[in-house]
Amino acid sequence: MNPQRICRDIAQNLFDRMQGARVLELGPHNGTWFTPHILERAGSTTLVELNEECVDQLVSLHTGSADIVRSDWHRYVRDPGLEHDHVVLFGVLDHTPNPLGLLEDI
To answer: pTM for this structure?
Structure first.
């Protein structure tokens, strides 16, 4: 199956609940997978990515549509002032040394 179609299908089945919500996407990579589907639905979106090249791509694709933050997920989610209705972290748990700790911090 086509990866872009998989993303679209997941978005149609899960992300419709995000309509008008404040969404935090951790590890969007270059912003070509789920990010466009989130931006179509969310009221506001924050993208948190550590990889500098990916952040550059996010900036070129989504400036004005999302707040883009270059940061480590673990550090970012510990900010006590954060308020989001939904957190998207597809693929992130496979790439973190402490997945349960990240979920706890969220």
So the answer is: 0.86
